């Protein structure tokens, strides 16, 4: 039968996730001659991610593009995908999130969150934008660093000696300009849109962590759908996310070129520095999320 | 009016609640100011405390709903008086009763929605096992924790059922006054002026 | 349809606006036949105030309470008098200038009118001004309150619009100064026509003494505006530091503030902020159901069919908001219109959300100065005994000036954005 889906996500119009969401709606409509349609609620119009999760669980909302941080704060098993140095470049991220090991993480979602995971979308590897000079990981020590407040990131940046400071997204640019923080970590796409280079002295590409997004469906809604529709939706979501992933990874060289043309240096973390950091991180997180060992193994092959 | 009548109980419960709300509002304001000042000091001395922002936000959330309950009883709020001020005294009184009645309607409706959302009966049936409740009803409320304080979120959400119940009680007390079933109670401890607006 | 009918009906009966929004939300859920939304209802209410930017509101209101208890207002009036008192229409300038300084401490128009009318109107009456004009002028002075930072309305707007609170507050500075200047020019002309009296003559030495005696009170606006503008902290932190500054000035300079008053001040600040914050929570629920019912999308389509370019869109908004402002108070008006108009402004007409915020806020503040629900006039009337309707008529030139400012702000984004980094 005909159905109108509602999809919610937190990012504003124009973000690559939003383009993917709109494309998903168009593709579904085209594939079913208008039987299945979709309305996209962007910019958190239906509430923040916890509120959207609640609506997904009750069945008020059909689908969501929810960041791994939100799912990871509920399920440590999922948080493993945010762990540092699983992969070390955006092209590897693009391969990694489509690997069966990453898809398999979704198996715990129905039981732990009442939702069904259909696939990952991505943002690029995160970098540190700093108002003091940085060349190596050791320089991060003592920095006041604005981070995405997911527990994995907090542990990671704390282990580097930074003082993680959670600051709400709309205030980040100010906080940096005002010297409330010495630096911030974010993906390059968001950083370019926000022009963080204008309030920084140096960009350090950490090549450590990335923030993927999961395309999830309400468990209640999923149960009510005929098998053929489920199959069609799964297939359409996969192909939409494939496009999003490839485009994002493909755009990264251009973004880096943009930043290289900015008057501040953009540097890479020397690869040798990371072994001790990984060991310290895994000591805490392997017991919470044993799947991390497997993810590291897979990541190393990419 | 006998002290133990239903009316007496409502009015007294409302006064007692208001006394609690008064203390809580002061306490939350002190706490909020202190949290922000501590945040300024610790951040400038390079020891930012990770959970302060989140605590301050929840402080304001509790302040909102406790204050909203108190202001119901104090009859302080923005309302459109364009039509009611043109009515005759008798009709104005009727409008007042309807308006106060709506407060009670909302209070009761919020109690019901909180009941659906927090599902205390389902929780008891699941033996107060949050994961079992989640598995049975897709209600994951009791398994969630806040991001930086790492408190269970349901503890913070409790302000809503509390608000729903206290607002219902205050609304009933106001309604009894409007129906002239009880005399107006002078409300102690709040020196508020009608002139202090909030725009 | 049912939702808006229910909303208007209960609003006219006099149900508080916050509750009207909440109840309309419930009616919508019933009408939509999607009862599963009831489970999300409480969480949406909670989520509406679960926002960092809103923390500034209780602190801004607290500053006003402390400042008033510390006798700081009176000293600011004295200072303005030492500067411009002996001109023709001196007290009228004093009124506007003192209001401008006090705007940089207080976050609210009505609070400011209540405070200033008590001081300025008797003084102006003594000097031979018409009481109605004095009260009306004070009400217009109060209009500066939510335009010059700090401002509760700008904080609410920035939370609704998801822009930086500091940016929004800074955006109000230039328009606030322009409005003050335009008011002063109008007073000069009106003073000439109506032959306004001069104030008492002060010798230069007396003036200097007054200025020196009162200048420490300037510490408070300097701390608040300076730390936002200079970037020492965000708006919330500047509010907390400003509260401390107000307490210290009140305690050690004016010596009128006592710490034993603090609990009552905290209580009042708590109650008054709850009035605003509950409205924000209610608006979150309401706009959630509107979004679910795709109302903003449909309104956007209608506006697009009427306004073909950004300028005509802005002018259309001015008219809509001015009409809404005449019947609804500032913050509720903000809460009901921004979720619908802002997405259209930014996504279709590519208007800067901060410029749009300045226009919306000033529009709704002007509504506080227009019948039938001109809250500022009612406050001034309650304090002084003047008639609200007459107040509106004698100050009509000031209303015209404010409208001109709105047109300028709509046409030139740089007036709002120039100070923002
Ligand atoms: Na102000
Ligand atoms: Na009005």
TrEMBL record, chain B:
InterPro entries assigned to the protein according to its UniProt record, in alphabetical order: DctQ, TRAP_DctQ
Species for this entry: Bradyrhizobium retamae
Compartments where located: Cell inner membrane
Domain of life: Bacteria
Transmembrane intervals: 23-43, 55-76, 97-118, 154-176
Keyword Methyltransferase: no
Full protein name: TRAP transporter small permease protein
Membrane topology: Multi-pass membrane protein
Keywords tagged on the record: Cell inner membrane, Cell membrane, Membrane, Transmembrane, Transmembrane helix, Transport
Record family assignment: Belongs to the TRAP transporter small permease family.
Boundaries of every Tripartite ATP-independent periplasmic transporters DctQ component domain copy: 32-179
Pfam families found in the cross-reference section: DctQ
Function: Part of the tripartite ATP-independent periplasmic (TRAP) transport system.
One Gene Ontology term, aspect cellular component: plasma membrane
Subunit relationships: The complex comprises the extracytoplasmic solute receptor protein and the two transmembrane proteins.
GO molecular function terms listed in the Swiss-Prot or TrEMBL record: transmembrane transporter activity
GO biological process per UniProt: C4-dicarboxylate transport
Keyword Hydrolase included in the entry's annotation: no
Automatic annotation (TrEMBL), chain C:
Sorted UniProt keywords: Cell inner membrane, Cell membrane, Membrane, Transmembrane, Transmembrane helix, Transport
Residues passing through the membrane, by range: 7-31, 43-64, 100-121, 133-157, 169-194, 238-254, 266-291, 311-344, 356-384, 396-420
Localization per Swiss-Prot or TrEMBL: Cell inner membrane
InterPro entries linked: DctM, TRAP_DctM
Organism superkingdom: Bacteria
Domain (TRAP C4-dicarboxylate transport system permease DctM subunit) ranges: 6-414
Bilayer topology: Multi-pass membrane protein
Cellular component, GO annotation: plasma membrane
Gene Ontology terms, MF aspect: transmembrane transporter activity
PANTHER family: SIALIC ACID TRAP TRANSPORTER PERMEASE PROTEIN SIAT-RELATED (PTHR33362), TRAP TRANSPORTER LARGE PERMEASE PROTEIN (PTHR33362:SF2)
Family (UniProt): Belongs to the TRAP transporter large permease family.
Subunit-structure text: The complex comprises the extracytoplasmic solute receptor protein and the two transmembrane proteins.
Protein name stated in the entry: TRAP transporter large permease protein
Organism: Bradyrhizobium retamae
Lineage start: Bacteria, Pseudomonadati, Pseudomonadota, Alphaproteobacteria, Hyphomicrobiales
